[in-house]
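Below is the data:
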Amino acid sequence: MNTLTTPRSLSLPRRDLLKGAGALSAGTVLMLAGAGSRAQSAGAEGDVTILNVALVLEHEAIAAYQLGATSGLLQKPVLDTAVRFQADHKVHRDALVATIRKLGGKPAEELPAEKYTNSLGAASLKNQADVLQLAARLELGATNAYLSVIPSFRDGQLAKVAGRLAADETLHWTLLNSALGRPLPAGALSFGA
């Protein structure tokens, strides 16, 4: 991984982070809201702050897919897809943890399962469509969050990784949206706005 040596100011405005976060859990939104001020410092510390916000998103996605997989509400082909998406998020998590440690930071810890169960509204999930809607909202929120932080990275390689993560989240959202029978976005440039 390339770490730039020329310091520059990081800009991570709250409004940009929160544009796509409306569908995320309250805890994740609070984490995103605080990231703007913490990431203002130049250098690897700002990148670590952004990466930890991404890690929180990945922890939440893993928990959401676990919730869906163990709910008994998903039919076999959909369950297989949910497990596959959860595996993708575990790869994302592991890569983020390794990168945060490499930069000298402390990775954000995963919360206890019951905290995710409560924050994600597990009690409101009554059928497969409810689970798919929850997953689609989280994937869209993560897509937009990743896209909004790309310009804030000091290290260009980290911006590239954020773009790749956003692409995975967009793929997940697209497939979930299709499974729900929803139309494609109305026009171009629909993500990250």
